[in-house]
């Protein structure tokens, strides 16, 4: 079993090069002529993902690789909030572009994705500011819901894939990603439940917190950093796979493909 993430965390920095390459391409024709509603979210994702590859951290217990203000939990989460909303909007925009027949329930699911990612932001910020680990469960459950919505909408559009040309590939990607991601998410949700229970918490999403407690949580997010490469502190294999796929490989490649296909 992997006990130390030192090698992986250094290897993760190669993801910054990949993201910066993708970012550069968005300023060069034909990618630079893509619909801004697709290209701007991609540019945000590439820039922030490159940053996170260089300064990775783990929100729980404020674990960081480099003990520097750039590893701030608050800073990373602020950037991640903008990125996640932008990226999910990009995915929802793709669904609406592929929905050439303007199917009402497909359009509704695409906007549900955007609403759900915003809701998830409230939960993750709540977890960071209150220290309640149970809120990470609700954040991740929201991601499972929006990925499922993306897959259901794609399945609804799949019979008409022949009329979509090269863009039909995104229906297949959405469905394949849902199978892989939701399988991984089952293990991740179980981890969130186990962490909450070890902390003596219930899964109840709401609880009263004083201003003093929230202020203390904000100070921790801004200033507290616990540098370590211990695999357990980082969340083990589940977190390793999440970091590799989220901001080092899969999501940047996905966003890049969207820009390239729709700029043709």
Structural overview:
The chain has two domains: 1-72 and 225-264; 101-224. The radius of gyration is 19 Å and the shape is globular. With 264 residues, the chain is mainly alpha-helical. Helices cover 71% and strands 2% of the residues.
Give the tags:
mainly alpha; 264 residues; 2 domains; globular; 3-stranded mixed beta sheet; 71% helix; 11 helices
In short:
This protein is mostly helical and 264 residues long. The chain has helices spanning 6-11, 14-25, 36-54, 73-98, 104-130, 134-157, 169-198, 211-223, 231-234, 236-248, 250-262, and strands spanning 57-58, 63-64, 226-227.
What topology does this entry show?
Blueprint (H helix, E strand, L loop, with lengths): L5 H6 L2 H12 L10 H19 L2 E2 L4 E2 L8 H26 L5 H27 L3 H24 L11 H30 L12 H13 L2 E2 L3 H4 L1 H13 L1 H13 L2
Parallel strand pairs: 2-3
Antiparallel strand pairs: 1-2
